[in-house]
Amino acid sequence: MKKGRNGLVIGLTILITAAAFWTFTPLALAVPTATNIGVADAHGYTDAHVLVPVNITNVQDGPVPSLIFDILYDNSVINVSEVQKGALTLNWDTPAYCNHEWGTRVAIVYDSVDEHAIQNGETGSVVVLNFSVIGELGDTSVMNLSSIQLAEGAPDYQIGTAPAINGTFTVASALPTATNIGVADANGYTNTQVLIPVNITNVQNGPVTSVIFDILCDNSVITVTDVQKGTLIPNWDTPAYCNHEWGTRVTIYDSIDEYALQNGATGSVVLLNFNVIGESGATSVMNFTDIQLAEGAPNFQIGTAPAKNGTFTVLPYGIINGQLTEITGAAMEGVNVTLTANDSSVVLETTTTNETGYFNLSTVEAAGYYVNFTKLRYWDISTRVTVQSGETKTVNVVPSRKGDLNDNGISADAGDVTMMLRASVYKLTPDERYDLNNNGRLADAGDVTMMLRASVYMIELL
């Protein structure tokens, strides 16, 4: 009986001891972690600085108020020159770092405001490493994270960790550039619009995904009213521009990689639509500054290219003038005068002759034209003229009266009737004035009839 009681006492003692242990020993809680923390592959150019974000993915068992890590790299290729706050740590204290022969140790702690700690589920950059690129073209360096420490807050400040995502840094070729970018000399006339292409020549170290430039000009002479896409960028976003007192800033951007400007590309990137304000003889520079050629992801490095500057000159208009007279020498008032381009029927300018038969077209751009003269009872006349800037061309014309075949200033007189009849039986050779009915046949029966009827005032030859 005593032995049984002793066994019962021992058993109770063990249970009491175990209960006391679980009562007074805290449960071990999970320490902070994340899906991973690390860097992506990156590249940069010798003597350049490259920003490489250190990203944490899906924080767990947080919040995390501080972290420490080592990043190992070849400091003959890259070297940390600065550590900046990341997107998740903007309110934290400035990061501390120390370079070693093997790489850099980084530490960052929050600002003691609990809500600024990194919360569960958060993903983003914790710091941004500013690497100075020392190596030569083609050199590479590991970017391996180790000794990763994620601290929890009060009261226990337990330390967790997370798997590392390591990257490789490659020293790439030079920044994006081109042989040049700019405009050729251009000219235009007061109160006209002139499209001037901005051309890039031989893109190098691309592809180029965006372009920014300033163009300086005298806005009392010319001013940009619109910027259109060039031949190289039909699929890019619509160009953005802003006019200033010194000129215009232009920005163009592409978000689809295959549309970027590839190496060797040459052509127009934008078309500048200038409104010409200045007077004849005025000039303006078209000088390019702050040219930026951006590469794409992941580094978005900015290069430039030499500027090709131009000069805009406001041209003097040409003038076409002259006088229209009857075959008798009398001035012809009221003749309609129109100006059309050689390759178009579109009327560019129009006027009428005054009481002295004089006309003047005073805003004629340098080109080839037809000057057309029309008036009832007279045959239409078109004269081809080529005009240079500032040149005056004089065109004196003697229109033929319809029905006046003998050129005496009288329509459908006995002489005209006789000439029409003789031409109808091939006794003389007719010209286009013998086609009174405008059917393309000279001195046919219809033309004879019209001449005879006009001679007795039964019709008027209009």
Model description:
By secondary structure, the protein is mainly β. It folds into four domains: 140 residues, Immunoglobulin-like; 138 residues, Sandwich (Immunoglobulin-like); 77 residues, Immunoglobulins (Immunoglobulin-like, Sandwich), CATH 2.60.40; 61 residues, Type 1 dockerin domain (Orthogonal Bundle), CATH 1.10.1330.10. Helix content is 10%, strand content 44%. The strands form six sheets. Strands 2, 4, 6, 7, 9, 10 and 12 form a seven-stranded mixed sheet that branches. Strands 14, 16, 18, 19, 21, 22 and 24 form a seven-stranded mixed sheet that branches. A hairpin with a 6-residue loop joins strand 29 and strand 30. The chain is rod-shaped. The protein starts with a helix and ends in a 7-residue tail after the last helix. InterPro entries: Carb-bd-like_fold (IPR013784), CBM2/CBM3_carb-bd_dom_sf (IPR008965), Cohesin_dom (IPR002102). It comes from Candidatus Methanophaga sp. ANME-1 ERB7. This is Cohesin domain-containing protein.
